[in-house]
Amino acid sequence: MTLSPPPAEWIGKNDLPQDFVLIHGMVMAPSFWRTYSPDVVRRARSAAYALPGHHPWKLSEPGQAITPEAVAAAYAEAIRRDFGGRPVTLIGHSTGGFVSLLIARHYPELVKSIVLIGAFACGRFEGQERLPAKLLRVPRVGPFLFRQFFQRWISTSEQFRWGSIECVFDKGCPWQNERAVAAMEEVRLQLQQARPEDIAACIRFMSATTLVHDLAEIRRPVLNIVGAEDAIVPSAHQLRVSKLLPQVQTVLLRNCGHLPMVEHQTMTAGIISAFVDGMATIEEKRQRQISAPAGKASVDLFRLMGLGLRRTEQSVSGRVQTAQQTIFHPGSGEGPNEYYPHRHSNSASHRRAAELGLQPRLGLRSVGGSGPCTAHPHHSDVDGSNLT
């Protein structure tokens, strides 16, 4: 069964030659990006799309079966509708990152680059499912139990925020300020407008899909932002995704959980801006090579246009490391760059590194697994009480 394309919630409608599509995580909403999208996104033409079954993208029939091909086709139709078929930069958080990889696999002509935040490539690890996914697998009464669980979780602001607290590593981070509280309340209100059957259908689609064997075929530049303390999608799996992608830059944020854009908003925004600026520089060089036969004047013109574009698109805060300050290095993506927001002598990230048999700051190249969905033994699937 086909899916209608998702409606767009516009985050930016400027005419700069940069196009962005933002896709949120499971049991979230497009409104989340109004608060937590980077400035470089706001200053461009940027649309936020919901996940299938999430408000305002209702399924044609309550709880209808969803296939990966139908999901990719629906997003492709939306990109053609909203961006005239121009390739876009996809920014996906958690399940939104999973879907971004799916789009790039099926419709590479519509994708310029990809930014993954707390993302994964395999929707289900047998024996490691979270409660909502397990409920849906219970014969006969499963859907009823899931509905009760989901509706209770979103019934009050306190219940919703308490059920989501595992997403952040530092419980005293900006997750607790008025801005975050207001953003999450808007998400809760949008979730109340979704049908539980549709959310369940999205969970089933995700749980039944793996892209691990397809990652080598995704030939688009990827930025993978990983929270070292992510309790929802363990960093070991996220680093394995980087290892399998052909063109990837990986940034590992220490003392950070599943929501880097909340826990370290300024740094995360600066990293994304630097990546986008790097893509613009590559495009500028390509244009200079194409224009070389036309003479030096044409080459200089393209160079000046490129420099002007980058100045218009972004301004990196003084607190943010720029691309020239070693956030990014060329390579296979197996050796992530690390950022320490603040150090602890016996931090959880160091303990986790010890559990993995790694050095706290070195040796991360060996992270991986033997199976198609192998990751850290503490990997967790989607949970209605956690944002994925």
Automatic annotation (TrEMBL):
Any one Pfam family match given in the protein's UniProt record, by short name: Abhydrolase_1
Region entry Disordered, spans: 326-388
Compositionally biased residues, Basic residues: 342-351
Gene Ontology molecular function terms on file: hydrolase activity
PANTHER family from the UniProt entry: MONOACYLGLYCEROL LIPASE
Superkingdom per UniProt: Bacteria
Source organism of this protein record: Agrobacterium albertimagni AOL15
Protein name: Alpha/beta hydrolase fold protein
